[in-house]
Structure formats: C-alpha cells, structure tokens
C-alpha cells in the first residue's frame, strides 16, 4: 500500500501537489496554532476559519483571488468579535458563537449562489487531491510570509502572549500584535481550507500545537514540534485517505487526534504513566 | 522624580478608582502603597505607567510618562500570568531586555550575561533551565524580580510581590530591593501585610480611592490614618 502511494506520487502530478500542499499547510498551521492555544484563542481560531467563507464566495463572484476576500472577512469578524466583547456585557464565547455562525451561514448561501454544491462541499471539507499548481504556489508563498512574520516578531509575540501586562507597561502595542495574529490566522485558515476544509481547520491549528505543548518547555521548541507534527499527520492523513479512498481532510484530522491521544497518556506533563511530573 | 498631578481614573463601568491623587516621589526610596481591596492601588501603578485612561498629569523625570516607559520595570499582580506557559526561567528573565533589543533582532550575548547575573542575585541560577511551572510561588516571584533587574530601570513598580511567597523568598527579595535602593533606584510596592510596613518602606502612600496620607512611614503610619484608610474595623494600635 505504501508502495502504491509512492508509485502514485512518482506518477501523478495531482498527488505531488496534494502532498506538498498538505505538508506546507500542516507546518504553517502548527506554527500559528501554538500562539492560538497559548493565548486561549482556540474558539477565536475556529470562528475566523469559518468566517472567511463569505469572503471566499465574494471573491468567486467578483472573480478576484480568494485570499483577498478571505482576509477581509477574517479581519472583519475578529474586529466584530473584539468590539462586541469590549463594548457589551456579552461574554466573548457568546460573541464568537454569534459572529461565526452568521458568517458561516452567509458563506454557505453565497457559495451556493456563486458555485455549485460540489464546490461548497469541497470548501467545507477540503479537496486536497484537486489542488492546482497555482494554489500550491500560493499556499507556499503565503506560508513563507506567515512564518517570516512570526520569526521577525517572535520576541514581541512571545511577550504579548506570555505577559501582556508587562508588554503594555513597556508601551508595546498589544492590540497590534493581536490583530497581526488574527491576520496570520486568517491566511492560514484560507490555505488550510484546501487541505482539511473550513469546518475542520481548527483541528489542524490546535491539535498539533496542543500535542507539542505536552512535551516542550519553551515556545520555540513547541513551535518546531508542532510544525513537525502538523506535517507528519498531514502526510499520514493523505496516505490513508488516498489509499482507502476516504476523505483526506478528515483522515488528517483524525490522525492528529490519535497522535494527541497517545501523547496525552505518555506525556511527562500529564503524569499518567509517570508519577513524577516536571521535567527537571 | 515621579509626579502625579490631580490624577483621576474612572473605568468604563463607572467605577471611580482614583480621585484627584497628588503624589511626588523623589528617589532613591522604597515606597509602600497600602489600602483595602479595591482602593485603587493597582490602578495607581497602571496610571503612572500610562496603561489606562486618566485625567490629570503624570511625569517621570519631568517628561510625560509615556516617553519614559523604559525607565520603569513593572511586575503586575501575579495572578495575571499563565504559569503553564512554555517558557524557561532563563527566557522569562531575558524578556526584561526586550526594550533594549531592537525590532527584528534577537537577544545578544551581552544581554544573556545580564540575565545570568540577575539569576545569580536572586539565587536561581541552578533552576534557570526549568520551565516556570516547576517553581514555587516564591521562586517565581524572584524570577520576576530578576527580570526587573535586567531591565536596568530607574524605577521599579511591584504589585503585591509577596503574595504566596514564603518568608525565605520574601527576605531574599526585600534584601535585593534594599540593595537596589542603595544603588539609587526608586521602588514602589503595593503591599498587604501591615505588620511589615515599618520594616520595609521608607515612605508610604495610604490609599482609599483618594489619597489618605503620604509621607515618611514613621510620620503617616498611625492609627488615625489607618482608620481613615481601612475604616473603623482596623485594630492596630500605633501600627504594631
Ligand atoms: N479593568 C477594570 N474595569 C473596571 N473596573 C476596574 C478595573 N480594574 C479595577 N477596577 C475597579 O477599580 C477599583 C480599584 O481597583 P484596583 O485593582 O486598583 O484595586 P486594588 O487596590 O489594587 O485592589 P486589590 O487589593 O484587590 O488588588 C475597584 O473597585 C475595581 O473593581
Ligand atoms: Mg491590586
């Protein structure tokens, strides 16, 4: 079976595209996901990955690159959520719930108008085997951009995530970094849409990161491990999905979940198998 | 010198946390800030740091405080930090250098040296590779003090640094702070334990949303002022 997969890789351009895109998406989701879970923004990540949908639809309608519409809507939704949270008694999870379900519903309708229901299905659940060269290159370019931003602003992102109070006291623009992460998250959400689909993006963002969190004691190591896990589960998921002819996106997500589950029981931080907890 | 002229802070929810506070802090000194819960102690530190909206004026060394933030090292009330964050002791201390390291640059050798020295001062050199969740409350507070040390700031603002800290750590921290004062720093500490006030602080602010008293500890720390700060319930005679 593995031989068949490798044979397929050598033979079929679409499978090469799928593999490369899946790996790149896995890496970049793993990287950004670390910040998402450490800032307690998993729900926000979920929200934004759903909220980009109308943007994608409008891009189809206007015939522009779907990244543009997606970013506009990703940012818009995070602004709306932050606004509701800060200016009313409504709690943020409620604000997030209202916003993203509305955006998702709007997106479904707009995609229905602009495209066929097959397209809708692919956007919701991913269609990695249909990735075109142009999508692949776009994914690579966007991922490089996201990772470069994180490398450049690493210490600022670290401080604003770890101790926003101190960051504020130093006069750093904590909100700027919040919105920067939201923008990067949106970019990742759009690239990951191809691989696992809108509905499951959040899994690719947080599951590898949460797994890495169980094993590492510095953010840098966590990011590298999370990226590696993201890449590996993407390859395995693609392999399983291709070999058994099942949905690749869901295979990737389930692979990640299995890795997490195993880690949960063996991790030193969890103290399930070991009595003594902390790594000395 | 830090100067607050007529500062008032009202939060969005209508709570007026500070009312017309006037304060002049001339260093080097260790100044305590005491008052009941909700009396605006934390708010006062944040106001001086320009972290919240206020009316009135704050200046540090004669310049608007927003331009002088590098001069101040601040440790917030501990509860706000996520102790399970993946960061080691050493890295946490190194964050103190961040305002001296340019954008897009990483921390250099010279800064790491400062980090090591600071860890030595607070007695945590051996634990430097540990993740912060493997520290006791007192050790973690020392890490935050070390972070202030590498900031090399002229002013230190500490919000309840002794909460959850045992006497050993507390004594280590107090000793460090007294040394810092000797070397010319000015230190503001929000504090709860009234029994230590006279030992720790040269000067004292007694706060109850408005300024009750400010001055040398020996002058202002008396029953009358304590009653006005905490209400009649308080039962310390002459500040025991
Ligand atoms: N972000 C905020 N939004 C609204 N009200 C606030 C906020 N922060 C503080 N307050 C209110 O302002 C008042 C002063 O709060 P502050 O935190 O300065 O008190 P404190 O003296 O530090 O209290 P504690 O001893 O509990 O730390 C309180 O009534 C508090 O409820
Ligand atoms: Mg307080």
From TrEMBL, chain A:
A GO cellular component term found in this entry reads: ATP-binding cassette (ABC) transporter complex
Q: Which domain of life is it from?
A: Bacteria
**Which terms are listed as keywords in the entry?**
Membrane, Transmembrane, Transmembrane helix, Transport
Instruction: Give the membrane topology.
Output: Multi-pass membrane protein
- List localization entries: Cell membrane; Membrane
Q: Which residues cross the membrane?
A: 12-38, 58-84, 96-117, 137-155, 176-193, 199-215, 222-240, 246-266
Cited InterPro entries = ABC_BtuC-like, ABC_TroCD
Which CDD domains would you find in this protein's record?
TM_ABC_iron-siderophores_like
What biological process terms from GO does the record include? cellular response to iron ion; response to zinc ion; transmembrane transport
Family affiliation? Belongs to the ABC-3 integral membrane protein family.
**How is this protein named in the record?**
Manganese import system permease protein ScaB
Q: What is the organism field in this record?
A: Liquorilactobacillus aquaticus DSM 21051
């Amino acid at each position: 079976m593995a031989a068949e997969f490798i044979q397929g890789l050598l033979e079929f351009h679409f499978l090469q595209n799928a593999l490369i895109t899946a790996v790149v998406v896995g890496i970049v989701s793993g990287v950004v996901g670390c910040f998402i879970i450490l800032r307690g923004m998993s729900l926000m990540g979920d929200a934004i990955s759903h909220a980009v949908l109308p943007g994608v639809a409008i891009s189809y309608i206007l015939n522009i690159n779907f990244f543009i519409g997606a970013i506009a809507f990703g940012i818009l939704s995070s602004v709306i959520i932050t606004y509701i949270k800060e200016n009313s008694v409504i709690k943020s999870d409620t604000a997030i719930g209202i916003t993203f379900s509305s955006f998702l519903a709007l997106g479904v309708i707009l995609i229905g108008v602009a495209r066929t229901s097959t397209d809708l299905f692919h956007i919701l659940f991913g269609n990695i085997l249909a990735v075109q060269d142009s999508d692949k290159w776009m994914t690579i370019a966007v991922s490089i951009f996201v990772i470069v931003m994180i490398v450049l602003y690493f210490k600022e992102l670290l401080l604003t995530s770890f101790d926003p109070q101190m960051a504020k006291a130093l006069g750093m623009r904590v909100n700027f970094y919040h919105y920067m992460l939201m923008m990067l998250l949106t970019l990742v959400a759009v690239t990951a849409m191809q691989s696992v689909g809108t509905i499951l993006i959040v899994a690719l963002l947080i599951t590898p990161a949460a797994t890495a969190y169980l094993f590492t004691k510095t953010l840098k190591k966590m990011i590298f491990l999370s990226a590696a896990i993201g890449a590996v589960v993407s390859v395995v998921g693609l392999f399983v999905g291709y070999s058994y002819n099942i949905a690749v996106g869901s295979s990737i997500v389930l692979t990640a979940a299995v890795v997490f589950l195993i880690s949960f029981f063996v991790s030193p931080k969890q103290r399930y198998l070991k009595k003594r907890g902390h790594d000395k | 010198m830090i100067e607050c002229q007529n500062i008032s802070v009202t939060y969005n929810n209508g709570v007026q946390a500070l009312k017309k506070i006037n304060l002049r802090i001339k260093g080097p000194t260790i100044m305590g800030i005491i008052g009941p819960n909700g009396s605006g102690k934390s708010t006062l530190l944040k106001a001086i740091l320009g972290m919240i909206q206020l009316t009135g004026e704050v200046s540090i060394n004669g310049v608007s405080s927003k331009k002088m933030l590098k001069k101040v090292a601040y440790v917030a009330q501990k509860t706000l930090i996520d102790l399970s964050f993946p960061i080691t002791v050493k890295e946490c201390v190194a964050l103190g250098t961040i305002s001296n390291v340019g954008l897009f640059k990483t921390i250099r050798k010279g800064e790491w040296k400062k980090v090591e020295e600071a860890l030595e001062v607070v007695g945590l050199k051996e634990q430097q590779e540990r993740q912060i969740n493997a520290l006791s409350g007192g050790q973690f507070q020392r890490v935050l003090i070390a972070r202030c040390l590498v900031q090399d700031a002229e002013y230190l603002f500490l919000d309840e640094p002794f909460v959850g800290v045992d006497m050993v750590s507390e004594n280590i921290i107090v000793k460090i702070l007294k040394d810092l004062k000797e070397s010319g720093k000015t230190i503001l500490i929000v504090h709860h334990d009234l029994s230590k006030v006279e030992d720790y602080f040269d000067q004292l602010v007694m706060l109850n949303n408005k300024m009750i008293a400010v001055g040398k500890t020996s002058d202002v720390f008396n029953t009358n002022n304590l009653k006005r700060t905490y209400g009649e319930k308080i039962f310390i005679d002459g500040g025991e």
